Amino acid sequence: MNQPSAAPQSFQEKEKPGWSLLVVLFGVVTVLFRFTGVWSWWALLWAPAFVLAVGFMAYEWRLLARSRWRMSALEWVFLVGAHLGFAASLAAILSFPRRW
User: Fold this and answer.
1) Residues 3, 70, 29, 33: is their CA dihedral positive or negative?
2) Can you give 2-52 as a three-state secondary structure string?
3) Is residue 26 part of a domain?
4) Within a domain: residue 81?
């Protein structure tokens, strides 16, 4: 038959994007850059956190597209904050001039 054995899940039951973890990860990386050198032994801590955050960012964008861009207003604020943290971290890694 053409009917699936399980009923399709509603939007409420599916996994929703959540950007708060990314804000925390990029916040940790940015704080490490603020108080330590980028290319010091602290790279053993910030490099995995940065790679993990970038991976989570790609996954969250996939979830966001799958959920048809439906998020709460707070999650949109977290999305903007996560991307600002990513931009600040990338600027520090690439040695752009600091403004703070």
Assistant:
1) positive
2) CCCCCCCCCCCCCCCCCCHHHHHHHHHHHHHHHHCCCCCCCHHHHHHHHHH
3) no
4) yes
Residue 26 is encoded by which pair of tokens? 């990029």
pLDDT, one tens digit per residue, over 20-55 is: 888 999 988 888 888 888 888 888 888 898 999 999
Is position 91 within any domain? yes
pTM over 0.70: yes
Core vs surface per residue 46-84: b (16+ CB within 10 A) or e: beebbeebbebbeebeeebeeeeeebeeebeebbebbee
Distance of alpha carbon 4 from alpha carbon 23, whole angstroms: 39
State how far the Cα of 44 lies from the Cα of 78, in Å rounded to an integer: 26
The structure tokens listed for 31 are 């704080």
How far is 14 from 53, CA to CA, in rounded Å? 22
